[in-house]
UniProtKB/TrEMBL annotation:
Top-rank EC class of the record's enzyme: transferase
Protein name (database record): CDP-diacylglycerol--glycerol-3-phosphate 3-phosphatidyltransferase
GO terms, molecular function: CDP-diacylglycerol-glycerol-3-phosphate 3-phosphatidyltransferase activity
Record's subcellular location: Cell membrane
């Protein structure tokens, strides 16, 4: 297994730790961050999320630079992103930080695209993520990271940057999903 694929698998392995930090009420205290507080456990979860999101960029860069792009990587990299983003968004809804309707739309798009990829894989076709999908992922990662940090550092100026970025991520999620299906409709049309 090459280095980019190892990074992808490490991202998947970080997800349970991330979930535990947000699910268990650790008594580690909190920091005052303007108009709210940032629990230490949430900070650590955000740090793990940011590291995991960074591995997404690093593995993609490394795979392209050294021609280490594999079918396994093309399949596992977007799956790892979907698992990480879905876990984070669901926990943000549970924490009453993200609106459930936005999370439902984002996860529905991710499941639809995964379904299309599975149909393609059954036909021996591997569908890689396009530039719109990468922009969607970047905006999702930024919004989630800021929301996990309880809008820090924007909490000091009372500017809802995290929620605004989540709405921007929603727009890119819808546009990229429509674009992905239009570009790959032949897979559904020609499947046996």
């Amino acid at each position: 297994m090459n280095l980019p694929n190892k990074l992808t698998f490490s991202r998947i392995l970080m997800i349970p730790i991330f979930i535990l930090l947000l699910s268990i009420p650790f008594p580690w205290g909190a920091w005052d961050i303007g108009n709210s507080e940032l629990p230490v456990a949430h900070f650590l979860a955000a740090l793990i999320f940011i590291i995991a999101a960074a591995t997404d960029w690093v593995d993609g860069y490394y795979a392209r630079k050294y021609q280490l792009v594999t079918n396994l990587g093309k399949f596992m990299d977007p799956l790892a992103d979907k698992l990480l983003v879905s876990a984070a968004l669901i926990l943000l809804v549970e924490m009453e930080i993200a609106p459930a309707w936005i999370v439902i739309i984002i996860i529905s798009r991710e499941l639809a695209v995964t379904g299309l990829r599975l149909v393609a894989a059954g036909e021996g076709i591997v569908l890689a993520a396009g530039s719109m999908g990468k922009l969607k992922t970047a905006t999702q990662m930024i919004s989630i990271a800021v929301l996990l940090l309880h809008n820090f550092p924007f909490s000091y100026i009372d500017f809802p940057f995290g929620i605004i970025m989540l709405y921007i991520a929603l727009i890119f999620t819808i546009i990229s999903g429509v674009d992905y299906f239009i570009k790959n409709w032949h897979v559904m049309r020609d499947s046996k």
